[in-house]
Amino acid sequence: MTSRSVSQWAMIWVLVVATKISVFLLSSSFLLAIFVLPLEASDVHKSQVVVTMTGFSADDFDWREMVPYLSVAAALPGEQGIKAILEHCTVLRTYIASELGAECRRDASRCSGDKPTTEGEVTQRIDEIVQEGIFRRNKAAIVDYQLNGQTFPFSEIAAVKSEKRQDAYLMLALADRSYTAAQVEAKYGAPYDTDIFQWYSVFKYRSDSPRYSSKAVFEIDPVNGAVLKVAVSLKSKKQP
Fold first, then answer.
1. Dihedral pair phi/psi, residue 235, rounded to 5°
2. What would the pLDDT profile of 36-53 be if each residue is shown by its tens digit?
3. Calpha distance 32→233 (Å, rounded)
4. CA quadruple 187, 188, 191, 197: dihedral sign
5. What domain range includes position 105?
6. Within the chain, how many helices (H) and strands (E) appear?
7. Does this model's pTM top 0.90?
8. 3-state helix, strand, coil in the chain (%, to 5)
């Protein structure tokens, strides 16, 4: 593992520990109906929407849509769990589809037909990213991937799967300061809790079901209200 990977993982770990999402995933009476029905691995389908990076905004990401896939990932071994998270993340699928399209424009010989980028190609590239980038630290499987598109609203994506517990995490870092706390509240409503740390504040959201508890933590610049990162965590509950 390179020093760059260690530095990137340290950033993720600080966010996870600071917000205590790896230890305390609190219960809530707030229940989102979309998350109540059990979701098995066989029910999971890849996103069929492929849009360009320039047509994708930070507000297009909805942390609630990731919760069922994190639930599936939490029950899987490390690498399989990481794939379940990243293969179903619209942010990464959009980015990879655009990257593949750019490769086709640079070298038309590698593509064929009117639809050069297929869902299967996107999934295959994501699986390659997992195989090449996965590492293990503190009894967790981790993939930390840089998103280098200049017109893309996110700069980094990381997936973490605990190999000791049925926990799973997704972290996204934003590329610029165009997404604000006001937009977060407009989309999700008022957070159930907030907190202030030395360099940032956080908005906390959560959902709860009989099978798991999930939390989303938005890291926000307290000076200008810009969203810096978002971390989504899920912890499976013990079944009777």
1. -125, 125
2. 223 333 343 344 344 456
3. 16
4. negative
5. 3-179
6. 6, 8
7. no
8. 40, 25, 35
